[in-house]
């Protein structure tokens, strides 16, 4: 399905470029930036892409920081984005909690708790919510979560990422800690973020397009790329962030393309 975008780049005189994709979903950490460092050429590439008229939304599993914090980080890094175009697994998790009238124990960092203001989180808890919370992954905190779960609470994983990239190298994600609680309690976690199909679909609301008209760019071959592909999207794997040689062969379905970084992925889109 080819989509003509009238505001796109022009080739020759009076010829409008035809784009295959209606919308683009972009991962944040590891793809656009690593902590406060922007990946090479990402700011300029995003502006170039936006100038074509393609819809751009940001889809992130980041759970250490609230949406406001993410927005401020992106702005300080030089990106021009709209806060409403940032879709986080924290937001989806809150919606799930409210819909099911849960009273959760939150294993989250302080910077992420802003997205859960107003929730009842005391007394008899019937859910345990686990995000990336290094300061909470000590024995006593995990044991407390274990006891709440053994008393009948539901286990909710904001996502189950195995690891992520930060300034000093790779670091454990929340997935191993969620798996520890699953193993100890015999419960299976309800997963909110990538690679769940519904999380990808939520980003298309209001765009009037289908998954096959949308492409995802990310550094995580499982959560970003395989998740998007299995949901019917196209997906580009970038060799930044958590990418490791051989990742391109670790998806059950091959990536649409493999590019050195976000800027190269934008070049691929504009040339296809």
From TrEMBL:
Name this protein carries in UniProt: Haloacid dehalogenase-like hydrolase domain-containing protein 2
MF term (GO), any: phosphatase activity
Q: Which cofactor does it need?
A: Mg(2+)
Q: Which GO terms describe its cellular component?
A: cytoplasm
Q: Which residues form a coiled coil?
A: none
Alphabetical list of Pfam families matching this protein: Hydrolase_6 (PF13344), Hydrolase_like (PF13242)
Q: Which organism is it from?
A: Daphnia galeata
Spell out the family assignment given in the record's similarity comment.
Answer: Belongs to the HAD-like hydrolase superfamily.
CDD domains recorded for this chain?
A: HAD_PPase
Q: Which keywords are on file for this protein? A: Magnesium, Metal-binding
